Amino acid sequence: MLNLGRTQTLNVIRVDERGLWLGSESEAVLLPRREGEDARVGDALTVFVFGLHDGIAQATRQRPRAEVGEFALFPVSQLTEHGAFVDWGIGKELLVPFRKQPVRMELGQAYFLKVCLDREGRPFGNGRIDSCLEAPPPTLGAGSKVDLILWQFTDLGAKMIVNQRYGGLLYRDELPATAAPGDRCNGYVRQLRADGKLDLTLRAVGVDAAEAARVALLTALGRNGSLPLNDQSPPEQIQQLVGLSKKSFKKALGGLYRAGVVALTPEGIRLKKP
Q: What is the three-class DSSP state of 111?
């Protein structure tokens, strides 16, 4: 079955002057010839089917900023009487109707959107994020590893999209100094609150927390063999260089030092050679 707005793998069924036809004769998808010059009939190609033109489904091998059902940050490319068009990342634009804009969008600005389908099966951008989020299930409890996208900042920290479906809050003390809307990372559920909201953390919860901090510090050290940090370093510097709170950093550093993995120098920390 053909899925508009989704990446899928389809077989080449024929080739003509218009391009490569994929899928089946009853649901054929057209891929431009320039994107499949080396393909032959019978080859399986992974393509993004982005919409219809003259009743024919169109495909590209380029990757979009987001597929149907996903969230991402989109820059506005033009404003029209129908709404705003944003850059989809595939050489094509995505329409955001006025009714799906919580604030009137401006040319040159970027906005956080979800890609949806209208009643006729056409993709569009939806900026009313709260209405797109589902209630998290009880199974998504403390310690669950999740995929995160930064949506918007608040006084407490940042609203995050969790697993492309739910909303959650990452508190300010864990936000990297360079964090920006659209950033993606892995995180963990700190707790599922009684009101159905998710509190999040970037650090592993429970028995895995110490090991996760140790790995993070070793990874940072492995980039150039040393770090200009010590027990007295400010929390902001530790967060920027290692991605850990000062408490977790000190515990990880103490463990590595006692194990003889690192040396403490006047300049900071040095990774010992095996």
A: strand
Statement: residue 89 has pLDDT above 60: yes
Mean pLDDT of 173-191: 89
Strands 83-87 and 123-126: unpaired
In the 8-state DSSP scheme, what is residue 66?
-
Domain 71-130 has CATH 2.40.50.140: yes
Q: Is the pLDDT of residue 207 over 60?
A: no
* Sequence letter at residue 256: L
Residue 23: how many other CB atoms lie within 10 Å = 20
* CB contact at 8 A, 84 and 192: no
Residue 168, C-beta contacts closer than 8 angstroms, at least 6 positions apart: 136, 146, 148, 159, 160, 161, 162, 189, 197, 198, 199, 200
Looking at residue 203, its pLDDT comes to 79
Return the pLDDT at 208: 64
Fold of 6-60: OB fold (Dihydrolipoamide Acetyltransferase, E2P) (2.40.50)
Q: Which sign does the torsion angle of CA 78, 83, 85, 86 carry?
A: positive
In sign, the C-alpha dihedral spanning 30, 33, 34, 36 is: positive
Residues with Cβ within 8 Å of 215's Cβ and at least 6 positions away in sequence, in order, are: none
Please state the domain extents for the chain: 6-60, 71-130, 145-202, 207-271
Global pTM exceeds 0.85: no
Mean predicted confidence (pLDDT) in 201-206: 76
Measured CA to CA, the distance from residue 40 to residue 47 in angstroms comes to 15
